[in-house]
Structures are given as structure tokens and as C-alpha cells.
């Protein structure tokens, strides 16, 4: 499927993935992250319950690290 | 033995081998004693600074004018102002005129908001030949302030080794000949604390600045600032690391500066509204209590919590910044520090009242090499920069040698960040045959050889062998290797990770154009304390255009400069995030914490400040520093150039290691089909593109900062920000 991830087109092999699976594929392991799916906040405990579909807009905002 | 009565058993055994302090007391020869009238601090300011000439033993106080406070605020601002006035455009780092200035800033020393014990050290750097500033914790800065001074200015050069004693109890300054204290900081810190403290309870009232043996033989010396760890009953060390501050210190033959105060109480800064500060301070401490464990675990892992995070995002420098991750990076995962090395459940704040407590320590670490082999010590750290610099960047994925090198860097008085980048550069040169065993005196300096890396630092401390060459830093080694050993200067320029003469700190910036600017456009050289934009740029894609990047490269460096004007720690701002931060319009700025700072500033000084005013305070000092560089023949566009390793793959192996990524970029960004092209051809195309992008970035950022295309602040801009001082206009007028 093709989605918009952080304002960029991103293609995944699977047609249905949870937020949690996308985070794992992308290795988004940082602890201070804000996730919005189609402009709705997704809490960490809901990552594995929230499905992402073709055409969705997913924002995974990493807050500052480093220094 | 009674001299060490209050040290722990381990320490006593370790330090007793050094000196008998009673004997040293009988040898103490005072060269100058100067008394002053102490006044309480008013709203964060003493309104005077302390001047000491170590060559002539002149000691005096200087008033702080309202203009100095309005334009320069404190901390780094005061340091720059005093240094400008003390030196000429041609003053060299080792001239007597050069100064070391230490200044905490108006907020410095409060205990009701976290991270308020920092000071800024400012000097002309032996590495960059221009202005250096370095931010440091520990007790000395606040104690200097509580003793009665907003800054200490050290000028001149002594012929004899000196100790400077700021006696904030009896209100006098003493300069005396060093009666024979140890050189290395972990011992000297204990000795001087014992020497000046009345008893164990008094140890917490002593703050010391010192360096170490390697600072005497190198250009990369740093300064250690002690803090007394009441639980462990020992001194701990925090470092003003960057740019050779310790080298200047030892060149002036200052062995140590000691400040002693009667004690820290609630409101020594005589702030205007303590309750206001306490309210935000309590709130912040609550965030740390409730959120730290789920977020960064600063209390358990310190700043090193990001070692594995950086590796996951291909940002952890390995093998001299060639790559951003490595199969063995798991061996230096931050969990290991938490679970195996760091002592947990102990207050690790480097200043009183810091709820973040990230100054972690590894206790009872048994040294395997060097002059202290066999002794058990505390290692202060490793912080992230030390773990990455001394570890992965040198191909060393084992905390044992990383901790050992960290310890020796500290006690010998050299910067771990600088040392890491230097050794990584040497290792790449060694593996490329640019230098060999004959040149290194038998050391096989391959990536991963921790024994050779440790021996190198011991050589430097002894002033011997190839260690002394390493202590010159990357820029001078590049020249030397080209001139003496026929190395290709272009290749060395590409792989030598320095800009302005200062070594890069430990992040891979290849895939973040904004961070390339965040590094190479800095005033002092590539340290991440001005801007860390990698996630915003590379991962979040929040700043995709040049305009966005330029805005970020304006706001973040200005905002972060402010910490150095006030005496604040930047870590506290962003290393814990409020629970409702996501609801903020600009969550990446951690706006609630910015508001906290405005409240703290108002609470201390009584002056109301908004975000714009905060940025303006920094902008004045930032532009002053840029023009200070210009006055010295630097600070122009050409000096913001970066080594290509910071921007892209220099070697074929680097390109091939991320071939898919680079090929994709050729296709998608440049519309060039990589099929059928050799790696060298693809590398050349990518390089041209990335170098062009960087030039465009410079244009955009200069414009946003109110500078000409050559990076010179415009007169009009200085007028707009209220910084059109005649001495600045004189420097930039011919360059408009
Ligand atoms: S956050 Fe860490 S470095 Fe900053 S003041 Fe607190 S303990 Fe010191």
C-alpha cells in the first residue's frame, strides 16, 4: 500500500499494517514521538490496535534528541 | 592519613599515595592577597566582575554597566565582551593578553529550577585561533557568583605554577604558588577539597577548576569543574571540553582555581519572585518524576540513552563518521550502562536542585592501564558524546575500554568529543596507509584497537611519541600528514572531521542538510549545542524547504545561545517532554519549557520577557561573536565550509554501504538513472548535488540571519536588533 508518511509518499509491501508494525518496519525506536493518523492523535498503547490503510496520512513526529 | 579523613576507604587508599596535605600547607607561599567588600547579589547580578592578572598578580574588580547587562546579559555574553576588550585582532592564544573568562549568568546558581548551575568559559582557542565558548556544570560558577562576582577574567602568564583561591567566606582573593598538588584532576580535585574544606560537611562548599597532564602537551586541553557528591563522599568532574580551554589555562601556569563559600541557601541570588520560580520548578520536577522512566531515562542512563537510538536511525558515527550504524552497536546499547555500569538510585545532579540528574557515574571501576592501573575510580559518564566518540567512531564496541578512556580523558584534562574524532581520523589514516607503524612508534592504530587508543592517550599525558601529534588536533594533523608523509590533502580534507579547526561532535549529518548547517555554520566550530535538527529534517520532514531550514537555523541557535547567557543547562529544556506537549502548536520547541524559562528569568530579574525578547537577547550576542570572528580574520562564508564526509559518501565503500538509498536519491531527486553508471560517476553526481544544496542553504540562512552573502552581519540588521555598537560597525563596514 501507498501512504503519506511524514509528508512523503511511502510504499509498504503489505496492504494492512498497524501503526505499531509501521514503527517497527521503519525502526522508529525513539521514546519521544507524537503520532497522528489522518490528523487524530494515536496514543502509544493504541499503536498495535490502529490500522493504517492505503492513502492514509501518518505523521510520526520525533521530538528533539541529541545535545 | 588524617588528611583524608572524610574520604571513603577506597578513595583514601587511592589518594593517600599522592601527597601529605599538612606538609603542603607548610610550603604554601602566598604571592598576593586582596580583600574586597562583599555585597548581596541583586536580582541575579553582583554588578561587578573579578580581574586577575596571573603574570603581575594584579587583582581588581570591574563594574558591570547597565549597557553590559542590556546587550550582553551574562555568561557567554560577558565573556565575549571582556575578551574583545582585552585582546587585539592579532592576539594569539598563548599571548599574555589572551584571557580565560568564566561567567555563570543572572539565573546561574538558583536551586529552584533544574539545571541552573552552568557557566560559560570563553577564550581565544589554540585550535581555532578564534573565540571559543564552552558550557560546563559543577559548583565553581555559582560559587564564584555567591562570592561576589558575575565573572572571573584571567589574563597574563605566570612563570610559576599557581593556585588561585576565591575565599567567599572571608571575602578575599589569594594567589599562591602551587606547593605541589597533583596534576591530574581526579586527584587534584580531592586534594584541594580536603585542603580547603574545614571538615566533611564543608566539602560541599568548595568548587574547583583544574585541568590535567595531557592539557600541557596538547592544543585540546579542557577544564574540569568539580562538584561534591555527598552520597559518595568524593568529588565529581564536569567538563568545559571544547576548543582547548585547558591548554590556555595550563599555558598560563594556572594549576587550579578554588572557590569557597559559607554555604548554599534558598535565595542567594536575591531574586525578585522566588515563588514564581518555585512554581515552575516544582512542575518540572514533577514531569521528571512521572515521565522520565517512560521517555529518555535520563536518571538511569544519562545522555547516553540515545546511543542505540542514534544507531537505529543511522546517526551513530562509526569508523570516523563513515557510517551511522554497525552490527556490533548492540554491544554498546545504553541498557548496558543502566544495568551493568552506572550506579542507580543516587542523586546525580551536577548542580543543586536539578531533577534531571543525568550526571551518571560508574563506581568502583578498576583501571587496567596507565599510571593509575589497578586503582578503583569513579568514571564520570560516559555521556552520549563520549560513548560514541571514544567507542563506535573508533570502531570500539565495548564499554570497558570506553569507560577507561573516558576516565583518562577527564583526569588528563582533554575533551572526550575532540579526542574521539581525532583518534577516529588517525585510525582511518592508518588503515589507508597514510601513516604506518613506523610513524606511530609501533602503535597499530586500526579501528577497534582499544589498547592502542589507550596507549595513545597515555603518551599524550607523558608528552611523548605519536600521542603528542594526536594532541595537535585534526586540522594540524592534516597539514602535517600532507607535508611530511605525502598524503593527498584533498582526501584528508574530505575525511578530517573538523570545521574552523574544531573537531565535529558525534552525529552523522549526511542525510540532514539542516544539521550540516547546524554544525558548520556555528560560531565556534561544529558542536551540537547550537542546533540539533536531524529528526526535524531527516525523519519528520518538517523543514523541507530552504526557508523552513533557514528559520530553524535561526530560531534554534538563538534559543540555545540563551542558555549560555543565563547559566542554564540546555539538556533540561528538551530531554523530558510534558505529557500534553503534543497539543502545542509547535511541539518540537517544547513550548511549555520555553514559557518556564521566561517565568524563571522574570522571577530572577524582575524583567518581563517574551519569546521574541529572548531570541533578541541571544541574537545580539550571537552577532557579536560572529563579528568577533570577523575581526580576527574569520567568520566569513569560506569559514562555514564543511568537510565532505559531513555531507555525503567520500569513499566507494561508503557509497556501496548505502547504495540503494543513494541510487534512489539520484533517481527521485535528480532524475538521473543510476543504471549503467560506475560508483565513481554516481558519487561525483551526488557530491555535486549535495555541495550545491549546502551553498543554497548558506544563502538562505545568511538572509534569514540578516547577513550578507558572505556571512557578514548587515549594519541595518545590527540596528534592528539594537547591536549597532561603533566597534562592531568599524569591523563590518568595509565588508558590507
Ligand atoms: S541536566 Fe544533567 S548536565 Fe544538566 S544540570 Fe542537570 S545533571 Fe547537570
List keywords for this structure.
heterodimer, A: 67 residues, mainly beta, 10% helix, B: 736 residues, alpha+beta, Aldehyde Ferredoxin Oxidoreductase,  A, domain 1, Aldehyde Ferredoxin Oxidoreductase Protein, subunit A, domain 2, Aldehyde Ferredoxin Oxidoreductase Protein, subunit A, domain 3, 3 domains, 42% helix, disordered N terminus, binds iron/sulfur cluster
Write the layout of secondary structure elements.
The complex is a heterodimer of chains A (67) and B (736).
Chain A: E1 2-5, E2 8-11, E3 17-18, H1 19-25, E4 33-37, E5 40-42, E6 51-52, E7 57-62
Parallel strand pairs in A: 1-7
Antiparallel strand pairs in A: 1-2, 3-6, 4-5, 4-7
Chain B: H1 9-16, H2 21-27, E1 29-35, E2 48-53, E3 58-63, H3 66-72, H4 76-86, E4 100-103, E5 119-124, E6 131-136, H5 140-147, E7 152-155, E8 162-167, E9 172-177, H6 185-196, E10 206-210, E11 223-229, E12 234-240, H7 245-251, E13 254-260, H8 274-291, H9 298-301, H10 307-312, H11 334-341, E14 361-366, E15 376-380, H12 384-391, H13 399-412, H14 416-431, H15 437-440, H16 450-462, H17 465-470, H18 474-485, H19 489-495, E16 498-499, E17 502-503, H20 513-520, H21 534-539, H22 546-566, H23 570-574, H24 591-605, H25 611-631, H26 652-657, H27 659-668, H28 679-705, H29 715-720, H30 726-732
Parallel strand pairs in B: 2-7, 8-13
Antiparallel strand pairs in B: 1-9, 2-3, 4-5, 4-7, 5-6, 8-9, 10-11, 10-13, 11-12, 14-15, 16-17
Helix pairs in contact in B: 3-4, 4-25, 8-24, 12-13, 12-14, 13-16, 20-22, 20-28, 22-25, 22-28
The complex binds iron/sulfur cluster.
Iron/sulfur cluster binds next to helix 23 of chain B.
Considering the protein shown, what is the CATH homologous superfamily of the largest domain in chain B?
A: Aldehyde ferredoxin oxidoreductase, N-terminal domain
According to CATH, the fold-level topology of chain A is Ubiquitin-like (UB roll)
**CATH architecture label name of chain A:** Roll
- Side by side, the strands of the main sheet of chain B go 1-9-8-13-10-11-12
Oligomeric assembly: heterodimer
Instruction: Quickly name the level 1 CATH class of the largest domain in chain B.
Output: Alpha Beta
Question: Strand order across the biggest sheet of chain A?
Answer: 2-1-7-4-5
CATH superfamily of chain A: Beta-grasp domain
Q: Tell me the series of helices and strands of chain A, N- to C-terminal.
A: EEEHEEEE
**Total beta-strand segments of chain B:** 17
Low-confidence stretches of chain B: 1-5
What fraction of residues of chain A sit in β-strands?
35-45%
User: Which descriptor suits the 3D outline of chain A?
Assistant: globular
Helical coverage of chain B, percent range: 40-55%
Q: Could you list the spans of chain A in which at least 5 consecutive residues all have pLDDT below 50? A: none
Q: What is the averaged pLDDT score of chain A?
A: 94
